[in-house]
Fold this sequence. Notes:
This protein has 194 residues and is an alpha/beta fold. 25% of the residues lie in helices and 20% in strands. It has an eight-stranded parallel β-sheet with strand order 1-8-7-6-5-4-3-2. Zinc ion is lined by residues 7, 32, 34, 65, 174, 194.
Amino acid sequence: MLKLAPSILSADFACLLSDIQKIERGGADYIHVDVMDGHFVPNISFGAPVMKALNDRTKLPYDVHLMIENPDQYLDSFVTPQTAFITVHREACVHLHRTIQNIHAKGIKAGVAINPATPVSSLECILEDVDLVLVMSVNPGFGGQKFIPSALEKVKTLAEIKRAKGLSFAIEIDGGITLDNAKTVMDAGVEIAV
Length: 194
Ligand code: ZN
């Protein structure tokens, strides 16, 4: 079964709580929290205070996607009892292994994300250490973009590596997912769709 993680980015911010309650009633598995800093990506979204405001107002776990530079500096503010995953970008982490260790040390599952131009091969040395790999199927920074098809090949490659090496990371896809392509991405090996 494909798990669903609707992004807060697609919510009406003026009615955030009621939108969150809608996705909860609709059967969402996670709330995907897209954090953008205006440096790593050309846009600013929101930070931990918005996420914390929803604590205890929803039972859904948070799937936090940090599209920010220097994520280590901000990890603590995204740790809440409802935080399931914190995912950082391969491209934003010079010392990725240490960053993943830092997330694990806080008792949170750790993920790594790759942009459309970053190959799966760049993750070769970290796949055994992560709980989730997020494949960006649009260029990060804005909601509502069109799906980039090469993301499917990356998902298939990851699924193959996972099978061959007996690894346990979940495969997530983020960007341009609709009712029309949800089955295609699931068949390719995606387990969580944003
Ligand atoms: Zn995201």
